[in-house]
Structures are given as structure tokens and as C-alpha cells.
Amino acid sequence: MFSPEGPTPRELAVQALSSVERGYDLLAPKFDRTPFRTPDPVLDAVGAALERVGPFGDGLDLCCGTGAGLDVLARVCRESVTGVDFSTGMLDMAREHAPDAGPAVSLVRADARALPFAEAFDLVVSFGALGHFLPRELPGLFRGVHSVLRPGGLFALPVSAPPRPGSGAYWTLLGFDAVMRVRNAVWRPAFVMYYRAFRFPDLVRELEVAGLRVELHAPPEFGRRADGSPRARMIAARRPR
């Protein structure tokens, strides 16, 4: 993260003391050179899984950031691809990275909690965005996803397996979230970004409450941990016809 291509400690500090929107506007030019970007193997695994159940017509990348997920949608959607994010800086970078070939790409600045669409998509994907929402916001977020899906449409959401308790990754994520909670307790505006915000069963329950039928998949492309369990799962939440 502190390589010459990535953000400096000072830039990260300024971002962390800003609002979420302003912070991502500042980070956008260097975002793809940070660990916050969804890794290509995860994107490729989701794309392969969706190819097996597609193709789709129109697709939406919810909280698209710099547009890494737009390539996934371009692989599986025939009609159009739309990215939505509330950071102008991130959308500017997504515009530069938008796929040249395939369906037409549109980028829309909007809040994911108030999507400006109605039954417009056959597929919605989201990568690494849930940590920017508080638990009380999940019901409204998922109702919004339901409202923009056409009947029979699919919401695909990859979720990594949590690190083993006591592992280095476990303590790193726990420490990061603790720092963010202290920061938000003493500083305004809040910067909502947590890695351990939700339990997996809670996500499934809230999706079902929103009226989506949930299936869990462990595509082989995600790989397995040493004990044989999946490194990640893909939640496939479908709006009933």
C-alpha cells in the first residue's frame, strides 16, 4: 500500500478523516493499487460462475468503484452494463477503465440506498461494498436491489470466508475495525468502512426478508482452504417471477 504507486500514509490519513464520499474521491486515482480493490481471481471466479447460469440482458454493478466489476458484467450481459457509485472520483476512474468491447456501458452517480431505477436489470452484482453500510441499512439496501431487478433477475454477491480466529488476518481485520469504530466515535463526519460488519447468516436472512430467494454456491474457481472448506461463497439471490 505504501509503494510508490499507492497512496502515502498521509493521503490515507486525510482520506480516513473525510466523509466516505470525499475520502473515495481523494483515493480514486490510486485505489486500484491498494488492497481494497477486489482481486482479479475473485472477479474471474464470479464471472465464470455467472457464465454457467447466464447469459443475462442488462446488468448493474452496485457500488462499482473504479469499475473492476464492469468487465465481469460485460462477459455475461448482452444488452447493457451500468455502474453506480456515489463517488465522482471513482466514477471518473471507472469511465477510463470501461470495457471497449461488448454491451454499452453507462455510469451513474447515485446512492446505493436510493437507486434511481425500476425493474431495469436482469443481473446485479456487488464486490466488497457491504462494509460501507451499517446493519440497520441492510433492509433498505436489499429492498432496493429487489426493486431494480426484473422478475427472475439475480443478485450475485461473493462473500469471503472469515479468517480463522487467532490468525494474523483475524487480528488485522479486528484491529482495523476497532480503529474505525474509535475514529467514528470521536470524529465527524463518519467514515463507514468495516470488514467484520455482518455475519453470513444475517446477510442471508435480510435478503430473504427483502423478498429474494437465496442460493449459496461455492464455485471451484474460489478454491479451498487447508481444511477443505471454500475460500469464498457466492450468494445468488433471485427475485421470484
Which helices and strands, and how do they pair?
Blueprint: H1 9-16, H2 20-27, H3 40-53, E1 56-62, H4 70-76, E2 77-85, H5 88-97, E3 104-109, E4 121-125, H6 138-148, E5 149-160, H7 168-186, H8 200-209, E6 213-217, E7 232-238
Parallel strand pairs: 1-2, 1-4, 2-3, 4-5
Antiparallel strand pairs: 5-7, 6-7
Protein name: Methyltransferase
Keywords: Methyltransferase, S-adenosyl-L-methionine, Transferase
GO molecular function: methyltransferase activity
Protein architecture, described:
The protein is globular and about 45 Å long. The termini are far apart. It has helices spanning 9-16, 20-27, 40-53, 70-76, 88-97, 138-148, 168-186, 200-209; strands at residues 56-62, 77-85, 104-109, 121-125, 149-160, 213-217, 232-238. 32% of the residues are buried. The model has no long low-confidence stretch (mean pLDDT 88). It is of the alpha/beta class. The chain is built from eight helices and seven strands; from the N terminus they run αααβαβαββαβααββ. Helix 5 (88-97) links the parallel strand 2 and strand 3. A seven-stranded mixed beta sheet has the order 3-2-1-4-5-7-6, sandwiched between helices.
Short description:
By secondary structure, the chain is an alpha/beta fold. The protein is built from 8 helices and 7 strands, in the order H-H-H-E-H-E-H-E-E-H-E-H-H-E-E.
Structural class of the secondary structure composition? alpha/beta
Number of helices: 8
Portion of residues in beta strands equals 15-25%
Report the order of strands and helices: HHHEHEHEEHEHHEE
Radius of gyration: 17 Å
- State the separation between the terminal residues, measured CA to CA: 45 Å
Average pLDDT figure:
88
Main sheet: strand order? 3-2-1-4-5-7-6
Name the poorly predicted regions: none
Q: Quick one: how many beta strands?
A: 7
Q: Main sheet?
A: 7 strands, mixed
What does the overall shape look like?
globular
Helix content: 25-40%
